[in-house]
Amino acid sequence: MKTIFTEKHNLRNAKTELDGGQLVEPFERPSRAKYIINRIKEVELGAILEPKDFGFDIIHKIHDRDYVDFMQVAWQEWQDEGMLGEAIASTWPARRMSSRIPQNIDGKLGYYAMAAETSINEGTWEAAYWAAQVALTGAEEVQSGEVGVFALCRPPGHHCALDMYGGYCFLNNAAIAAQSFLDKGSERVAIVDVDFHHGNGTQDIFYKRKDVLFCSLHGDPYDAFPYFLGHADEKGEGEGLGYNYNYPMKPKTQFDEWRIALYDALSKVKDFKPDTLVISLGVDTFENDPISFFKLKSDDFKTYGADIAKLGLPTLFVMEGGYDIGEIGINTVNVLQGFEQAKS
Questions:
Q1: Burial class, 81, CB count within 10 angstroms (exposed 0-12 / middle 13-18 / buried 19+)
Q2: Can you name the residues that pair with 217 across neighbouring β-strands?
Q3: CA 42: distance to chain centroid?
Q4: How far is Cα 260 from Cα 266, in angstroms, rounded to an integer?
Q5: Each residue's pLDDT tens digit, 92-118
Q6: What is the full DSSP assignment across 135-160?
């Protein structure tokens, strides 16, 4: 299996995350990608390719143009205001408040942020831009005939909505890849999000559309970030009604129960008859992940990689979360190896 990857992800090297009332080293850090790429090389998974630059066209089809413009200048505006630390939102347009966009950078951050844990640093935008190009390059490889491709995106993307960042995400890589498939001939695309956290950004983007089926397996939003989307009764809206499926699960969910949800999601995909499949691949379902509460073991990742392969669809894996740094490489590559072995 080919992997698309760039060292430009290192430009996203924030030093602060708000966690438990403290500023700590972010759980989403450069070493995540390092462990994954080292494991790919160790098992000789396949060729590692640099991304091409596809520009902004598809990004603008997924994200509000004003949001994209803001993300490109947010750090500089923060610097110009004389702020000493990394850019962290502190005020939001909460319920019953105005949603007009402020002029001050502090207010702008709050307008475009969905959560306070995610800081912006000097290299954030460039790393996010190239993560999107990684996804687009992976999509092109699939469109060229590859059965399975891994887009090693960092920073991740599935929490990034139409015009909001958060959850370590600044552009929605999986959604951008899905749009690329549609633009280049696919009539229908399915996205299955197996990250522990709900893909709230992806849901937001496609909620009123019927050309993209979205299925997300995740921690129950009553108990887990991002809290305010991801319930089972969220089915889509307008033309998108019936094309959104959520599988919220409780703390300490074991693989057998999780796999039942995966089977149901994959059956929805099969019925949808998509031309291509995107997997938002988060491995924070692992039993030792520090910010999650499912109990999957390393071998389980290989098992469900094989389950995905049985659909027989051209598949792009897009990297999302996973924060047990020591095991992230093994767990990620187990999914890809399980897929490869099953399809062969």
A1: exposed
A2: 247
A3: 25
A4: 10
A5: 999 999 889 999 999 999 999 999 999
A6: HHHHHHHHHTT-SEEEE--SS--TT-
Q: Whole-angstrom Cα distance, residue 255 to residue 252?
A: 10
Domain that holds residue 16: 2-64+123-343
Which parts of the chain fold into alpha helices (H)?
31-43, 57-62, 65-80, 105-112, 124-143, 173-183, 200-206, 255-272, 298-309, 325-343
Q: Does some domain include residue 171?
A: yes
CATH code for the domain of 291: 3.40.800.20
Phi, psi of 42 (to 5 degrees): -60, -45
State the catalytic residue, choosing from 158, 159, 197, 198. 159
Q: Give the integer Cα–Cα distance in Å for 54 and 64.
A: 18
Residue that is written with structure tokens 């954030």 in the block = 124
Report the pLDDT averaged over residues 215-232: 98
Active site residue 159: yes
> Would residue 140 count as lying in a domain?
yes
Decide if 56 is inside a domain.
yes
Which contacts qualify for 73-78: CB closer than 8 Å, 24 or more apart? 74/105, 74/108, 74/109, 74/112, 74/120, 74/124, 74/125, 75/120, 75/121, 75/122, 75/124, 75/125, 77/105, 77/108, 78/105, 78/109, 78/120
Give me the residue label for tokens 């887009």.
Answer: 151
Are 215 and 203 contacting, i.e. CB atoms less than 8 angstroms apart? no
Cα 130 from Cα 157, distance rounded (Å): 12
pLDDT of 127 higher than 70: yes
pTM of the entire structure? 0.98
Q: Is residue 42 part of a domain?
A: yes
The answer to whether the bond into 274 is cis (omega within 30° of 0) is no
- Tokens representing 151 are 């887009």
The 8-class DSSP code of residue 184 comes to T
Q: Which amino acid belongs to residue 102?
A: P
Split into its structural domains, the chain has a count of: 1
Query: DSSP state, 8?
Result: G
